[in-house]
Amino acid sequence: MQQRCDTMNTVVSVVIAAFNASDTLSVAIESALNQQGCAVELLIVDDCSSDDTLAIASKYAQRDCRVRVFQTPRNAGPSTARNLAFYAARGEWLTVLDADDWFSPNRLATLLSTAEQRGLDMIMDSYYLVAPDQQTEYASRFTGLCPNGSEMDVSLADFVGLGLGSSKPMIKTAFLRQHNLKFDTRIRCGEDLLLYSQVLLAGATCQFLNHPMYFRTELADSLSRKDRVQSLSEIVSVFELLETNVSVDDSERHADVLNAISCRKQVTQDALAAAKWKRWLANPAKTKMPSLRNVLELTRHMCFRKSRYAICTL
Questions:
Q1: Domain that holds residue 304
Q2: Who's near 49: CB < 8 A, 6+ residues apart?
Q3: Count of C-beta atoms within a 10 Å radius of residue 259
Q4: 126 within a domain of the structure (yes/no)
Q5: Does residue 262 sit in helix, strand or coil?
Q6: Is 276 a member of any domain?
Q7: How many domains does the chain have?
Q8: Total-model pTM
Q9: pLDDT along the chain (314 residues), means of 10
Q10: Does a structural domain hold residue 280?
């Protein structure tokens, strides 16, 4: 049943950047439109897909006035696509939903209630990991950071040090626009980490709610869908860029943040070493063998992966 567009005063703008996502997009869309307890607008940006992504999105827009569809002029990556939606968003709050993920029915209302009660600029939650094509959770992330159902304040040092960059926070639209914050279009992996860190660096008040309400599709035997040499190398570069931004702002005042960045960068470099060895083992004839100096990094990654990434097996 179609919901009226103006049934509630507070609106959350949900942004989906989609590229060749025809197999999963409908699930993501339905989870956003079926949110209970708050009014939602859904902005879908097709990044010049070659499949039926645009047709699927347009079909939903034709029958539900809450859905708005855009298309990038050329394939430019998720940052460009999301920024297009950010500019067009009408909601008081903004949040991102990946095209192969989905929300639990009460996610946005729960986050919104806590954020408004606490007077926050940004709020994030724990999430479930789901194996592709199964839609059943096999693990969760960040559920061990604090008691179930409780909240904790999150500083920039906390956000970086605890590895919360993979979360999907809800942020006040006015705060983003006031500080002219958006995704860096030069970055295709780690763009979330950089933007949300910049939001906190700009002084946003933020809390983490330990209530997993986001379902993230991810392979059970990998750190993430993007655990590849190139993507992890890009994330290392993001940490270096963030390091520069923090130092320019005030390195003495942000000593704890710089320490957190240094620690998390090492964690990512260890994962990168593991990715290089995995790539070589898969094709030793065509891939250069990683340096034996990377063995220590590989060992650290294998031993501490679950604790470093706050992975809790269900």
A1: 229-313
A2: 18, 19, 20, 21, 22
A3: 13
A4: no
A5: helix
A6: yes
A7: 2
A8: 0.89
A9: 49 96 95 96 97 97 96 93 96 96 97 96 97 84 94 96 95 97 91 95 96 86 57 91 81 83 91 86 83 80 84 84
A10: yes
